[in-house]
Specification:
This protein is of the alpha+beta class. It is built from 3 helices and 8 strands, in the order H-E-E-H-E-E-E-E-E-E-H.
Length: 152
């Protein structure tokens, strides 16, 4: 890995209107990454990146993230082969979140075998005091996770 490409955090005006990449990582050293399909615009997944994951994504044009559950850096597709090729990486106004537009090399990104991790909807306007029942939308499996993630 090369030297960090990130600028120090400046004034609000520098961060919001400037051209320097100065990401604001949270107290755990992470930044939120929203992943969308470059062609369709579909929301595919939400993940987190540490500085190393963001830097590797910039350098390789392949999505890297930080797994909070496994406490480690991971390249999307390292197990499944469903690599995410980055076509564009955007930063929000105060640089505390990124949007990653990707081309998928596999049929889906979700470890459950679906195209997107966002395959359930929360019904709005329901009865107060009652439990919420999720509705499945775009929930068909596009690959068999048991075969894709079988232990090698």
């Amino acid at each position: 890995m090369t030297e960090s490409p990130f600028a120090p955090r400046g004034t609000a005006a520098e961060i919001e209107e400037g051209r320097a990449l100065a990401p604001k990582f949270d107290k755990d050293g992470l930044i939120t990454a929203v992943v969308t399909d470059a062609a369709s615009g579909d929301l595919l997944m939400l993940a987190h990146m540490n500085a190393q994951a963001l830097q590797l994504t910039i350098e390789t044009a392949q999505a890297h993230f930080y797994s909070r559950s496994r406490n480690k850096l991971w390249k999307k597709g390292e197990e499944s082969g469903h690599v995410l090729d980055v076509t564009e990486l955007r930063v929000d106004c105060d640089q505390d979140a990124v949007q990653i537009k990707v081309r998928q090399s596999g049929p889906g990104v979700c470890h459950t075998g679906r195209h997107s991790c966002f395959y359930r909807a929360v019904p709005l306007g329901g009865d107060k005091g009652k439990g919420v029942t999720l509705e499945f939308v775009d929930a068909e499996r596009v690959f068999d996770p048991a075969k894709v993630y079988e232990k090698k």
